[in-house]
Amino acid sequence: MVGDVVLGLPALQLLQDHGFELHLYGKGWAKALLSGHLGEPGWHFTPRAGKLSDRIAQLRELKHQGMLLDPGFNSRVNTLLMPNSFSSAFEPRMAGLKPAGFARDGRSLLLCSAWTAQHPSPPAHALEGFWELACKLTNTSSPPPDRIDLQVTKEAQAKADELMAAHGIRPGFICIVPYAAGDVDGKDKRWPEFAAFTRQLAARKDRQIVTCPGPGEEDIALKDHPDAICLPGVALDVYLGLLKRASLVISNDTGPAHMAAAVGTTVLSVLGPTKPAQWRPWGPQNRIAQGPGGQWPSMRDVMQKVDA
Which of 16, 31, 42, 207 is 20 to 30 A distant from 169 in Cα terms? Predict the structure, then answer.
């Protein structure tokens, strides 16, 4: 998930600070998301293959490369598992790697080091869980940073600025993210009043409203948010550049909220069943709009927070 990759970035930076050379392995879209860091020394990325046999072959090749770089590579833990899934432990173990991670999802026997999380269940924030993994591997103990420093490449920022110019978008616009995949305990993560809120926001005519729907979300943008400038199909690295130029991002519980917060833009996260203690956008500049007991906030409450 996009949010997980963003929230895991401080942990990766901690590993780099302790002298680790990072060979990241994950879904192909993560390469664009992390492109501002992959140009740094010691950051490498391998897109994860589709077939299980191909993934194991990839991991075996990564093991081979590691042993060429460091003769002691296979004598210690050499793979840090950020996800808690069974498959994330099974595949590297089948490839002969020595993974470490939290002892969850029945995978303890697959781990060379099976760690018990300090916060075994919510409400610990997801970022703190990733940070704890990096602390255990580096044998350190420190609080995570109060901000995420997600870098945007010059090329991606230039493309974002060109896209804005082509559509007459000026810096300081409001970006809305009325989309969200999945649910929380069977409850939809999409604010039911988002469309009405966008109409009310547009009626003020004081700021441009922009939205960047992902695949399959275009109809929501065009039908429910016709007052917003719609930019479909934007690549993740370019999306980061757009978010950096916004004055405010108003979002459901979804990946672009974490992206925006990580590039330093203020996020107003509109939440219903989502637990903010676990999934709020990270950073002191961000705000939450949520009703009591995990209910959705009113439009009035959200608008008051926009004004604030």
Answer: 31
